Amino acid sequence: MPFADLINHSGRVTSEDPAYEVRRTAGFFSRDYLFSLRSPLAVKKGEQVFIQYDVNKSNADLALDYGFTDSSPHRDAFTLTLEISESDEFYGDKLDIAESVGLGETAYFDIKLGKPLPPQMLPYLRLVALVGPDAFLLESIFRNAVWGHLELPISRANELLICKIVCDACSSALSGYSTTLEEDEKMKKAGSMSPRLEIAVGVRGGEKKVLTETNNIFREREEELDELEYYQERRLKDLGLVGEQGEIIFWEPPQK
What residue stretches are annotated with the Rubisco LSMT substrate-binding domain (predicted)? Predict the structure, then answer.
């Protein structure tokens, strides 16, 4: 809508509801359209009206689409790409499970600064990392329930592997930048950049913050692996084979 493009964006607008509406005017044969704009914020006469372009867009998306960035730290984001390797011996089973929840061989997860991880990211990681003894979950008997199992830790080895996968991915991405976050901050403080370069450095710095935060999350998770509850423990509890103190109860047949 050309006219709507003239309305400026403001980060103060947090509503996801459309700020404008286009509809036909009254009359069965009318070809006229009526455009109406509703301000999400209270305004006084003569004040500028602002709208929210898209509350879910990252600063990288805003920069590419509109040529500006938002000061909100939650706009800082990084898209982490994960995939099921074609060389994986369980490639077909894993792909089938991923597709059953709307994902695929390659999955993209938008991680935002200070926000929880995307809900499907950990289950997908655990699926990718299923190897050895944990691969029994790929059997057809578990097919309808496997994603539910993947939403919780499977085993210490599996959880350790997903921590390594993410930390390696973050380290690799960070090493691909030509500057460090500290160098970016110095450039911004110097104030000698062109507007376009300032936007680019801001987006780049935001991505580095997200990568650093994500790396720290999984480093801390790696240190807490012994405190997590895994599939086998949950299964034993479901069967009533774990005592109040966490001890395993061995079933013995009644004596004749």
Answer: 86-211
